[in-house]
Amino acid sequence: MEENLLKTCLYDKHTALGAQMSPFGGFMMPIQYTNITDEHNAVRHRAGMFDVSHMGEIFVSGPDAEKFVNHIFSNNISGIPDGKILYGMMLYPNGTVVDDLLVYKEFEPDKYLLVVNASNIAKDYEWICAQREGFDVEVVNASDSWGEIALQGPEAEKFAVETLGLVPAAGLGFYTYYEAQWKGARMVVSRTGYTGEDGFEIYCTHEAINEIWDILLQAGVTPCGLGCRDTLRFEAGLPLYGHELSDEITPLEAGLGMFAKIKEKDFIGRDALVAQKEAGLVRKIVGIELQDKAIPRAGYPVEVNGEQVGIVTTGYRSISTDRSVCVAMVDKAYTELGTAVEIRIRKKVFPGIVTKKRFYETNYKK
Amino acid sequence: MSKTLEGLYYSESHEWVKVEGNVAIIGITDFAQHAMGDLSYVDMPEVDDELEKGEEFGAVESVKAASDLYSPVSGTVIEINEELEDAPELLNQDAFANWIIKVEMSDPSELEALMDAAAYESMCANE
After folding, report:
1. pTM for this prediction
2. Percent of residues in chain A assigned helix, strand, coil, to nearest 5
3. CATH number, position B23
4. A196 contacts A232 by C-beta, under 8 angstroms
């Protein structure tokens, strides 16, 4: 099992720092360096950095690139300016999710970068290639040659500009990027992230990513593992594929309909979403807050009067709000804000209230 | 390096038992608290709950995971450590000084199936 796991280009840095390593998405990844709470708070209050080199980079180019990406992607990329980034999903014809991803419009005509989840790289690449018929496009999976660091937190801009010398980063709007160079290597710097804080994602060669990691570490940026990446994204209401999104869940059920432009264009899965919308949803992802300190976790049943009406997809004792909260897929009848539900935690049931699925006020820079 | 205490009984699921008369005082080991990391919640049974040996009686939870607790003996819960409700971190500070529940044993001979400190240490060394 373990010998099949991949290592990111920063693997040796993690072990040198004494990180607790664990398999994730086919890679051996750092879960924590010190502890999840401290790393979480570093991102909320100062700056933290994550090795996200396990993420996949797939390039789509060619005369039909825009038409093709719009065909496979739920968000609408028609005419977006160079340097713009859109979040969305690739869907199966039945409307469930192949993967959620970012699409970067490159500073060249007819060229896009698709950043996908580590666990789905092979599946996504295969899926994209299988949809290519009739489109004049080239699809390249460059995941193995790119490393990536996410620099996140209210002081991320300061470290990007002052420590790394990425001066134009300060001028980036949310969900845009610019092309930089690191000792001659192509570097992508985007104002994106997965924490609910301001920050940047930096893509470059393995060698450059190692240098950047060392410089940021030296400057006092807290190395952060996947443990707090999950607590941070969860508090900010951001979905994780395999939990709030999957090949059994549609974007409408996940409450992400705003990223599926069914009124603006056609794309794979659109008809299924239109039909689902017309028929009305039968279930939906909601937030639930418990009064008790007990911690709701993925897989625990949501109940009303002893009947199961849903299932928890992610839950924590929220570090930033000190509340026991979760997101759950719940039958539509129980999704109104304020609805009383119960969560079964081991042998007991705990009362909860349906809330919004964002538990923490995000601090993005516009 | 986690510590063990002589004179206690140990279970394979990392509970310790201190015996006072017919009462089993039960907690989690230093090895267990160390493996879990910072604890944020301790789920405990109610007083008067009947437990079978090996039965789940609660859990200790860190940020990232819940770890079930299993009763090393059969009997009746006579006391729970209410201090842990507001201060689960006490288990991280000293796992042996902070018990979780006290059980009036129905069959003290069950203790014989548990490990002593040396056997428990060697089990942990192999984990």
Report:
1. 0.93
2. 25, 35, 40
3. 2.40.50.100
4. yes
